[in-house]
# Entry
Amino acid sequence: MTVLYNADYRCSVSERARDFYGVTTVVERIQDGHPEANDRAMFSGQIPHGVQFTSPERRRMLTTYYGPATGVGRTLMWIRQLPNARVGLIGLGAGTLANYAEPGQHYRFYEINPAVERLARRHFWSLADCRGEVEVVLGDARLSLERESPNRFSALVLDAFSGDAIPTHLLTAEAFAIYRKHLTRDGVIAVHISNGYLNLQPVVQGVAQAYDFGMVRISTRGDDSKTTYHADWMLLSQDARFLLAQAGAGQPETASARSILWTDDFSDLFSILK
Ligand SMILES: C[S@@+](CC[C@H](N)C(=O)[O-])C[C@H]1O[C@@H](n2cnc3c(N)ncnc32)[C@H](O)[C@@H]1O
# Structure
């Protein structure tokens, strides 16, 4: 579990929004004597939705679950080779992942909570600093994607799992049928599965097998000095070259691990309790 407020910081709340989705807070965190460590964080309840350093030299650093060595970091670095790539991202938070976009690339975030977009634009630089084109589509990501014509995403990032609350409808066979419609042939789906209580790997594996995706799981350690956390990502793709390039960094899936296929009619959190 990540420590959010600790004795090293002086914290003050910059803004708090209360709505149907709960309480979203932006907190300024100051470390006396270490200005380079000062940062700004967005929380939903106690769960971090993104952290950005406030010093101009460090504000583009990829923090929390999104460093370059993580599964999503490796995916978006790979996509950087594709000049006009389009990337879909489910879950905006502070918009940290926008820092990976290159000029000419198009990042499209899907975000359910309007307060998150407002706070991200008002208190964080990631969207304003983005070198590519970036846009935010408000609403439930699955419903938005269902309505849209194929987006030809080179990568689709699933990062809507707010801590231990799991939007199960984003992990079913029917949801992945929608995601697949929006992917290029060699596209990658990156699924964030860091979770203290649930092991989501069998579920992601279930949909990967159902749709014939190869996969790799990448787990990386955190580093306090960079404000990165332990992160677990699963990467799904039909591009053997991409998967092979990641294999050294993660653990290629073994056939013996169990798989569970969730559908809109069946999901079971008890069976994946750690
Ligand atoms: C951990 S944050 C994402 C952080 C982000 N990827 C970044 O680059 O900083 C998770 C976000 O997912 C959003 N979310 C949760 N369920 C969603 C859904 N069904 N559709 C779209 N967004 C959703 C939450 O409101 C929250 O802003």
DSSP finds seven helices and twelve strands in the chain. The longest helix spans residues 114-123.
